[in-house]
Amino acid sequence: MITTSACEIEQFIYREADLLDDQRYTDWLELLADDVVYWVPNFLADAAPRDYGVIVREDKLGLRARVARLMHVQNPTMKPAARTVHYLTNITMTRETENAADVRANLLLYVAKAGRVMHHPGRIQYRLVRHDHGLRISLKKINLITNDTALSPLPLI
User: Fold this and answer.
1) What's the angle, vertex CA 65, arms to CA 137 and CA 138, rounded to 5?
2) Mean pLDDT throughout 90-118?
3) Is there a domain that residue 57 lies in?
């Protein structure tokens, strides 16, 4: 088994949310495994990307590029930067193997930008793997319950 306590998993997921809310994206990237898949499905949570497309599907290289764009001083979409608050509940380990733990959590993401507050409810599925320096995220799949409607630009979730 991955021999990780429920408390350690919860704290890891809460730490990830704090890094995103604090816009500490470089530190957030350190939580990702080299083979990470970051995925926000379009329309149906379990639909094949080739059939329905995706809102976001990135590997670590793509996420590094996204972070570089977010942090670039001349990025007009970041003036002012969106502010976020992640509310995570019902963090549950759904499967545990020798090397990994599958975890899910309910999400309510608030995004404030340019005088507007938007909310994005959904569920996150994680695959966490043990690394030399602690846990790492090898899969993060965000199933927004509003993924069948037009979405405003999303920050990192």
Assistant:
1) 10
2) 92
3) yes
Which helix (H) or strand (E) segment holds residue 6: the answer is helix 6-21
CATH for 73? 3.10.450.50
Q: Which domain holds residue 60?
A: 6-144
pTM beyond 0.85: the answer is yes
**91 touches 107 (CB < 8 A):** no
Instruction: Say which residue the tokens 């030399």 belong to.
Output: 132
* pLDDT for the residue numbered 42: 81
* Cβ 10 vs Cβ 135: under 8 Å: no
Give the pair of three-digit tokens for residue 58. Answer: 């990135």
Residue type for position 14: Y
Alpha-carbon distances, residue 80 vs 77, 91, 112, 114, 140 (angstroms): 7, 32, 10, 7, 27
DSSP secondary structure string, 9-33? HHHHHHHHHHHHHTT-HHHHHTTEE
Q: For the chain, how many structural domains are there in total?
A: 1
- Give the three-class secondary structure for 81: coil
Phi, psi of 15 (to 5 degrees): -65, -40
Q: Which stretches of 5-153 are assigned E, i.e. beta strand? A: 32-41, 54-58, 83-96, 100-113, 116-131, 134-144
